Amino acid sequence: MTEKHRYCVIMCGGIGSRFWPYSRSSRPKQFIDFLGTGRTLLQMSVDRILPLVPKENIIIVTNEQYAPLVREQLPELTDDQILLEPARRNTAPCIAWAMYHIAARDPEASVIVAPSDHIITRENLFIESIGRGFEFVEENDALLTLGIKPTRPETGYGYIQIGRHIDGDFYSVKTFTEKPRRELAEVFVETGEFFWNSGIFLWRVPTIIRELRNNAPDVAGVFDRGIDMIGTPRELEFINENFPGCMSISIDFAVMEKAKNVYVECVEFGWNDLGTWSALYDTSPKNRDANVTQNCNVLAYNSTGNIFAVNGEKLIVVDGLKDYIIADAGDVLLICPKAEEQRIKQMVNDVHMSLGDKYL
Amino acid sequence: MTEKHRYCVIMCGGIGSRFWPYSRSSRPKQFIDFLGTGRTLLQMSVDRILPLVPKENIIIVTNEQYAPLVREQLPELTDDQILLEPARRNTAPCIAWAMYHIAARDPEASVIVAPSDHIITRENLFIESIGRGFEFVEENDALLTLGIKPTRPETGYGYIQIGRHIDGDFYSVKTFTEKPRRELAEVFVETGEFFWNSGIFLWRVPTIIRELRNNAPDVAGVFDRGIDMIGTPRELEFINENFPGCMSISIDFAVMEKAKNVYVECVEFGWNDLGTWSALYDTSPKNRDANVTQNCNVLAYNSTGNIFAVNGEKLIVVDGLKDYIIADAGDVLLICPKAEEQRIKQMVNDVHMSLGDKYL
Question: What is the pTM of this model?
Answer without folding.
Answer: 0.75
